[in-house]
């Protein structure tokens, strides 16, 4: 297929967007890889997988990078002025299908994980072995999805020129839907449903007790901290994914129906979709700071302990509270008068104190003392860094 001058400009713009997105995703991935491999384990700043969500988001960044590389390959068609079959075309079609399915499954996985943890309060296992199995399952599904179609139809026939780039050939209409298009819609729909439920629970419209769900008419639950801020942050994920996927899905659906959209619409839709890697990096940087290497002395360490021999017997605390392995918070060793049972303490977050325990506030967080441990209340600690 020959490209007009306007077509070549549009394809070149798509390649530029892909290049920007690829650079945006490569920078945090390279930084994470360097800090995880090269920096000493005792360094002040290093990256480590502390929870499944870190691995899930890391996997999504990898899929975003693959997607950007597929779009970056458009540069060849812009320079050549024509899109033709061959090994390069086959490679681009395969990469684009890998990216479409990979980003869809990764986004849906993060949505389901967040939903199950925040709504049904399933205990987030800090052991990443299960998360590794889930990620492995995602990639096995992606590889099988590609391998079966390539094995049955042949790579050079299954992938070919489809307008200004290469993708699944036009003769495979059913495979386009089942092996690519369908996964994007399923992920977008499941993400919207999951995060809408999260929003309703955090805003207090729905209360979940075990497996029972009931309406509470907008009464915010006192055991859910930071409800407004966290709800809005959660809603950003399906909004970003749907915004980037919906125009492309609409353009492809119109093409499937025999109503070929204008080239400018195709460029806009695909450009927005190819920019999803950049948007995800910006979103993760804002909402998930623990995804990047962090200071070992961070006050958000999830391992919390306290020397509290006298906490319950006398109502006082020792002169220092140990958070994590190294972080020490100095406190006034003067006695603390016991409070009445079950008051609610409000700082930056809300927490309930059990009768007979003492409130401890540090870095704007509330904890409960019980024997040798402090337990942070509210949302599971896996989401404390959001």
UniProtKB/TrEMBL annotation:
The keyword Membrane is annotated on this UniProt entry: yes
Biological process terms in GO annotation: adenylate cyclase-activating G protein-coupled receptor signaling pathway
Top-level division of the source organism's lineage: Eukaryota
Lineage: Eukaryota, Fungi, Dikarya, Basidiomycota, Agaricomycotina
The protein's name in its UniProt record: Glucose receptor Git3 N-terminal domain-containing protein
Organism: Lactarius akahatsu
Topology relative to the membrane: Multi-pass membrane protein
TM stretches of this protein: 12-34, 55-73, 101-120, 132-152, 182-202, 234-253, 265-286
Key words, A-Z: Membrane, Transmembrane, Transmembrane helix
């Amino acid at each position: 297929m020959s490209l007009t001058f306007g077509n070549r400009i549009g394809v070149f713009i798509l390649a530029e967007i892909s290049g920007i997105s690829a650079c945006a995703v490569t920078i945090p991935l390279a930084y994470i890889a360097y800090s995880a491999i090269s920096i000493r384990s005792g360094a002040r700043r290093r990256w480590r997988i502390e929870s499944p969500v870190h691995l899930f988001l890391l996997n999504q960044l990898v899929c975003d990078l693959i997607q950007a590389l597929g779009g970056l390959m458009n540069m060849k068609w812009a320079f050549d002025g024509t899109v033709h079959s061959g090994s390069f075309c086959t490679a681009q079609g395969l990469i684009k299908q890998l990216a479409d399915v990979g980003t869809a499954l990764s986004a849906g996985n993060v949505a389901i994980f967040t939903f199950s943890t925040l709504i049904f309060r399933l205990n987030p296992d800090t052991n990443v072995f299960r998360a590794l199995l889930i990620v492995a399952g995602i990639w096995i599904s992606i590889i099988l999805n590609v391998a079966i179609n390539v094995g049955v139809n042949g790579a050079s026939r299954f992938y070919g020129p489809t307008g200004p780039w290469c993708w699944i050939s036009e003769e495979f209409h059913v495979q386009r839907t089942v092996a690519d298009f369908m996964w994007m819609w399923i992920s977008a729909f499941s993400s919207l449903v999951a995060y809408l439920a999260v929003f309703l629970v955090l805003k207090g419209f729905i209360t979940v007790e075990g497996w029972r769900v009931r309406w509470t008419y907008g009464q915010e639950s006192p055991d859910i901290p930071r409800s407004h801020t966290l709800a809005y942050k959660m809603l950003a994920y399906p909004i970003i994914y749907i915004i980037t996927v919906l125009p492309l899905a609409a353009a492809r659906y119109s093409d499937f129906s025999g109503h070929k959209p204008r080239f400018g619409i195709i460029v806009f839709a695909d450009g927005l979709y190819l920019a999803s890697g950049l948007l995800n990096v910006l979103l993760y940087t804002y909402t998930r700071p623990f995804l990047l290497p962090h200071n070992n002395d961070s006050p958000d360490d999830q391992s919390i302990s306290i020397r509290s021999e006298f906490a319950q017997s006398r109502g006082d605390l020792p002169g220092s509270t140990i958070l994590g392995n190294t972080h020490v918070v100095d406190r006034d060793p003067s006695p603390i008068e016991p409070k009445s049972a079950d008051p609610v303490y409000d700082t930056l977050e809300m927490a309930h104190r059990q009768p007979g325990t003492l409130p401890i506030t540090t870095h704007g967080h509330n904890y409960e003392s019980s024997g040798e441990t402090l337990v942070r209340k509210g949302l599971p600690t896996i989401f404390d860094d959001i």
